[in-house]
């Protein structure tokens, strides 16, 4: 079930990143701050065990990595966006998209595990 949800989310976000007029490439700093806040929240969550905090953490992480997927897709495309990578960096672009998708999958798997219990 998590594979299907991840595939649907990634497909929808990729289509959104391809057709939208909004430029998500300018949000790099905000996404970095979000990742740091999520890391600190994760460290706090280690000392406060429970289903609720794990579910909140996984939900926030899935949202953050969904935004990263849109960000990385637009950076990979280039075009009229503010920031872009060169075509020679296709391996880096592929790895970043792969890591975004894997992180989305792991967090959706965590969410579905706690919803099922």
Describe the structure.
The protein is mostly helical and 117 residues long. The chain has one domain. Helices cover 79% and strands 0% of the residues. α1 (2-19) runs parallel beside α3 (51-77), α1 crosses α4 (90-116) and α3 (51-77) runs antiparallel to α4 (90-116). 15% of the residues are buried. The mean pLDDT is 87. It holds the Pfam family Bax1-I.
**Segments where pLDDT lies below 50 for 5+ residues?**
none
Portion in strands: under 5%
Rg calculated over all Cα atoms: 15 Å
Q: Could you spell the SSE succession in H and E letters?
A: HHHH
Task: Quickly count the helices.
Answer: 4
Membrane topology: Multi-pass membrane protein
Transmembrane segments: 27-48, 55-71, 91-115
Subcellular location: Membrane
Keywords: Membrane, Transmembrane, Transmembrane helix
Q: How do the helices and strands line up, and which of them pair or pack?
A:
Elements: H1 2-19, H2 28-47, H3 51-77, H4 90-116
Helix pairs in contact: 1-3, 1-4, 2-3, 3-4
Short description:
Keywords: Membrane, Transmembrane, Transmembrane helix. Helix content is 79%, strand content 0%.
Characteristic key phrases:
117 residues; mainly alpha; 0% strand; globular
